[in-house]
Design a protein that fits this description.
By secondary structure, the protein is α+β, with helices and mostly antiparallel strands. It contains 5 helices and 7 strands. Helix 1 packs across helix 2.
Length: about 170
């Protein structure tokens, strides 16, 4: 079902693990977001190759419309840390951000993760609302604390708040 503006609905978007061939599109998506720290294309090649099982891309008609990149920290493999995510603002798909986060959470939960973590800049209200909704879906009490202060991050970077919740008892299957 296509939306009124001709954009795909979330049901028409394929959520899949990234491949190395997706790295350039993911890098471009991050660069165009204007909000995320842009890493080198090489970094996204590594993420798409070595972290494919803990990352995903949203694709429609051969175009990457979104992605989530994350990993299982060696300090605690029962944790899933969502490191970066973005949606193509040129082709917005209502509900896609939540669908991507929910799908990656389901996948890593099935693989043994028990806790979801991510960092959010306090001014990013859209992501804060998304993470609150995701935590509510997993019936996890949301813990929020400062992970890195502006002084630690440098270069005028704002504080990064750690959002953490259990994914052990989802409200849905």
């Amino acid at each position: 079902m296509t939306s009124v503006l001709g954009e795909p609905s979330v049901r028409e978007v394929t959520l899949r693990s990234p491949a190395v061939g997706d790295a350039a599109a993911v890098h471009d998506l991050v660069r165009r977001s204007g909000r995320l720290d842009v890493n080198t294309r090489y970094a996204y090649l590594i993420w798409c190759r070595d972290f494919a099982s803990t990352s995903l891309v949203a694709e429609h008609d051969g175009r990457i419309l979104g992605f989530v990149t994350g990993y299982r920290p060696p300090r605690d493999p029962a944790v899933y840390f969502a490191w970066q995510s973005a949606i193509d603002q040129d082709r917005p798909v209502p509900g896609l951000a939540f669908a991507m986060m929910d799908e990656i959470t389901r996948r890593v939960r099935a693989d043994g993760a028990r806790t979801f973590e991510t960092t959010v800049n306090p001014g990013n209200r859209a992501i804060i609302m998304l993470i609150r909704k995701l935590a509510a879906e997993y019936a996890g009490e949301l813990e929020i604390s400062e992970l890195f202060g502006a002084a630690e991050l440098g270069d005028g970077h704002d504080v990064e708040m750690l959002y953490r919740f259990s994914i052990e008892n989802p409200r849905h299957g």
